[in-house]
Amino acid sequence: MKANTLHFAALGFAAALAAAPALADENAELIINGEIEIVTRTAAPAHLDGAFDEILSGWRFRSDETQSMEMDDFDNPGMIWVDAAREVWATPDGSEGKACADCHGAPEDMAGVRPVYPKWNETAGEVFTLQMMMNDCRVNRMGAEPWGTDKGQSIPMEALLASVSRGMPMDVAIDGPAAETWEMGRELYYTRFGQLELSCASCHEDNYGNMIRADHLSQGQTNGFPTYRLKNTKLNGVHSRFKGCVRDTRAETFNPGSPEFVALELYVASRGNGLSVEGPSVRN
Amino acid sequence: MKRRVFTLVLWVAGLGVAHADTVAPGDVVWQDGTIPQSLTGVAGDPAEGAKVLSSKSIGNCIACHEVTALADVPFHGEVGPLLDGAGDRWTEAELRAILVNSKEVFPDSVMPSFYRVDGFIRPGKAYTGKAADDTFGPLLTAQQIEDAVAFLMTLD
Question: For chain A, which residues score pLDDT lower than 50?
């Protein structure tokens, strides 16, 4: 009997904590270089079915110092890779002797691309991440070697394409031919993996705003990727982040580039539809 | 050769003695949602239990719970309730149950089950990201459970 009454008390306490997230600075707003306005808080998309009232960028959960590093490109270490990728963009590679620039013009002409990926690819008959699309160009149009997922030039190039779309709202399609992949991603999101039996939702839906040991849990949004992390002082891809989170549940992870992580990337991106593209962002 | 075999036999026998009274994860006896029986027959040590709760590499309970008595260890989480007073709120048999398999007490809880070895989806080899192998075991040993329970009983 004692147990029964007290479960109730314990549950009540947990709920009270969850309802009052202790954000670093609730009112800080993100404007990059004094001109690019970033939406870091907005109404949740309808397909979240009320899981959240509003969606929040991971930026809002970081400390004042980490937040400020993203407010000026000179302070954002991720921009070093963006600059390096500009050179790769213009350099011919592969048997066709072509560069990205030969077909696409300036990187700025690609504004609007990042927000709609992952996206259904009609020719391939599957959902493509931005990295898969880049490799499709490399292999089929340039006659060049594909880059590895979250490896080599993939991440800098993804950061360049993100940077030119900063401020534009994430807007991935989840219906039509992408629907099946999206469903698979949603299934994975709510699966409690590993010996700790934690799903993405256990941390990022049920407990965002709470501390888990020294970490302030965010909603696990992907609008900021690639992300420069103070922890490993480099740019990190979405799949690598997923891998780390699944590993932390004491589970056998999936690999970057796997069909599971492609589906999860689409699903998680859709949870952030409406937040601005922010990459390369700064996180800890 | 003969000597080697002999040593091995002795070593195995030694292990057997040390663990004679230890209840394996699959053999834990439940009674009305509680576990009245000690898992080892050896009284829990609250000081060791405090280490189980605090240490990242053992129970890491404070990743999710705040415990005032452990205030000298930095970074307590907010995912679970404050554990102050747990020894007043719960009996020893109830605390043992919560630790062995939280889900039997709090259905769908995010709290991990610390003395259970089956029913996981894609269990891994600790935090390596690789698949579990034959080294797979419960998150805590039977004695660590007893020590943690003993510590929690001091929280009034």
Answer: 1-23
Amino acid code (one letter) for A132 = M
Q: Which residue of A has its CA nearest to B115?
A: A195
> In this structure, what is the dihedral angle of CA atoms B102, B106, B107, B109, given to the nearest 10 degrees?
-70
The yes-or-no answer on residue A245 being catalytic is: yes
The radius of gyration computed from the CA coordinates of chain A, to the nearest angstrom, equals 20
Task: Provide the 3-class DSSP secondary structure of residue A256.
Answer: coil
Is cis: bond before A226, omega within 30 of 0?
yes
Instruction: Collapse the DSSP code of A15 into the 3-class scheme (helix H, G, I; strand E, B; otherwise coil) and give the result.
Output: helix
Residues 6 or more apart in contact with residue A72 via CB below 8 angstroms: A32, A33
Q: What residues does A212 pair with on adjacent strands?
A: A215
* Fold classified for A41-282: Cytochrome Bc1 Complex; Chain D, domain 2 (1.10.760)
pLDDT digits (tens, 9 = 90+) for B57-103: 999 999 999 999 999 999 999 999 999 999 999 999 999 999 999 99
Query: Are residues A64 and A25 in contact, defined by beta-carbon separation less than 8 angstroms?
Result: yes
Note whether B31 contacts A: Cβ–Cβ < 8 A. Answer: no
Q: Which pTM value belongs to this model?
A: 0.90
Q: How many domains does chain B have?
A: 1
Asked if the Cβ–Cβ distance from B78 to A210 is below 8 Å, we say yes
CA angle A79, A80, A86 (to 5 degrees): 85
